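Ligand: zinc ion. Inputs:
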Amino acid sequence: MMHRLDGGCHCGAIALELSLPRPPEEEVIGACQCSFCRKHNARTVSDPKAQARLILRQPSQLQRYRFGLGASEVVLCHRCGVYIAMLMTEGGKAWTTINIDVLDGRARFTRSAEPRDFGGEVLEERHERRKARWTPTELVGWPEESG
Ligand SMILES: [Zn+2]
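Predicted complex:
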């Protein structure tokens, strides 16, 4: 049984559906120590057995930001400023790690966040780890070059 959670940005331009293989109470959550997540004090969830749909209701509001190795991009809402997820795309596939505070069920993630610091990785290692650990994601209504 999958556990479905909905969410998205504040203004509704970007919506998110996440189906987890276990209840949110049992999901491991991460406190990513990258320089971007630290500034947001973000707690994130990713599970390779989960499935996510990232739905762009208003494509003009998609804001992307890359930094560091540029292996992935931050997905933000241009209008309301909410940080939704980190996204990696490769070969027509996409993976995300999601900011749990954009989910309506955020309060159900009760495990304490585990600090994660991957600053020592090279680009190749980073791609492989993300494909193994991030959540496979369907991009709905996105510009062609993302798919
Ligand atoms: Zn918004």
